[in-house]
Amino acid sequence: MLLSSSIYSHADLKQMQQADAKNLSFYLNQIVLPNQYRYYQNVEELNRVSSWIKGQMQKFGIPCDYQNYQVNQKNYRNVVCELNIGASKTVILGAHYDTHGESDGADDNASGVAGVLEAARIFSAEKGNLNHNIEFVFYTLEEPPFFRTEQMGSAVHAKSVKSYQQQIQGVYILEMIGFFSHKNIQDYPTGLKWFYPSHANFIGAVSNFDSHHLGGAYCAAMKQINRLDCQRLIAPSFVTGVDFSDHLNYWNQGIPAVMITDTAFFRNKNYHTDKDRIDTLNVDKMKDVVDGVVFAVMNLE
User: Fold this and answer.
1) Is 2 part of a structural domain of the chain?
2) Which keywords label this protein (predicted)?
């Protein structure tokens, strides 16, 4: 599955709808409220955010439903929205909206949610040029203590799509897409630092071997856009960090998935702390990341 020029060539990129940094800032400030933490013990705030996400998606003309489930006698919900153009194939684009404890969770993962929202706005405007249906999913309970359990929102969703698994071209998970620096602060799992930049001014595309084409399509799109460097990692799950997000649950179901990420704690030391705030994010680079997602998805064959 390669990046095709059948819809847009590099010379025609300016004809596409572009991501808007002001929109991203607006979404971030709606998701992140002072002292209102989106973690599993604060179901009321999780419900506020999921309700707002659903309303925002509906403003884009994209219908949504809640995917409800219960954990420890508490009710949680994913937000599942579908842009159905009547195509035979579907692409899933997702991000988790919960946080780890009492953190603003601006990069982790309000940034990913904002990215999916802005991509949805663009796809809705460009739906006449789409090759695929697009399912947008906003997950709950990605964070501990539910990570790697059946209670993860993405585990619930990944199981629910088994009936039409063969129609799914791939899954793009946006996991922390807002923290960048020109400084040499980038860390890596053991053994990888010799192959990748020491600066922290790139976006990563992380896949397993079965999903390598998705990472390739994304980095090819970023290369054509030519604003922000894209680095690929294709590795099995035993490499530290490779499966540290919702794409894990699609891999477990045999569905190709890629994580688009600023590399999380390998770069952003605000990770899972009260310093993970909106003012640490770079919305201009976030919009480049989103444009890459849009361009990659619109050109998947």
Assistant:
1) no
2) Hydrolase
pLDDT digits (tens, 9 = 90+) for 67-120: 999 999 999 999 999 999 999 999 999 999 999 999 999 999 999 999 999 999
Kindly write down the DSSP assignment for every residue of 205-262, as one continuous string: EEE-GGGHHHHHHHHHHHHHHTSSEEEEEE--TTSTTTT-STHHHHHHTT--EEEEES
Got the DSSP string for 48-79?
HHHHHHHHHHHHTT--EEEEEEEETTEEEEEE
Q: What is the pTM of this model?
A: 0.95
Identify the helix (H) or strand (E) that includes residue 43. helix 43-59
Whole-angstrom distance, CA of residue 135 vs CA of residue 30: 22
Distance from chain centroid for Cα 145: 21
Domain range holding 276?
Answer: 10-298
CATH code of the domain containing 219: 3.40.630.10
The pLDDT score that the predictor gives to residue 13 is 64
Cα distance between residue 301 and residue 157, in whole Å: 24
